[in-house]
Protein: Integral membrane protein 2
Amino acid sequence: MVKITFQSVSAQKPEKDQDADKITVPQAHGRLVPLMKPRKPFPTGLCCLAISLVIFTLGLVLPSIYIYRYYFMSQQIPEDSLFHCRVIYEDSVYAPLRGRQELEENVSIYLEENYEQISIPVPHFGGSDPADIVHDFQRGLTAYYDIALDKCYITELNTTAVMPPRSLWELLVNVKRGTYLPQTYIVQEEMVVTGRLRNMRQLGPFIHRLCFGKETYRLRRRNQRQRIERRETKKCHRIRHFENTFVVETIICDRF
Structure:
């Protein structure tokens, strides 16, 4: 005979374990530790993007400040640093025009930037070309822009012939009180072209602004022997200008 029995099922549900929400991972030695949620990765890409934007912004702002300072602020010159000069001098070097001559020019003096700019209009008499000249004392350079030829010429600043901005300003302030300077004289300096210049940025912002987009050449001064031996058949042109107590005639020759 076989006896069949039934096991009673309790209606009560087993109590929920308080630790049921915890996820455990078995570890060595039978210890259970909670599983930590992984940390979010650091946004490296976003940080690199922000740094790139800062560098790009600085790359735009700094050149803009430089251009504004040297190309715009330098043009805003006080009226007491602008001069219109008319100089009477004795011409003893150019045969067709020997005697008393008059030179007219406009001078702008930039004391803070330490440079001078001279504008010479078309002369009333022949023998000289109209020109714009920049004397940059900070870089020790002079630039002649011959308007008739539409060419620029760069040479070392001749501090013997050119007064520094402060001294020239004081001289012209005294001149401004009258119409003319006392009669003065003329001296010559001869230059020869030595080659073409293509990198204009090395010349500084003031000369770069004057000569930008123009054929630009280097000049070298001739010594006394070269002046004596110079042939008159060489192609030369003259620029007469005033930046001292005397008039300077700069003779520029294309070659020896």
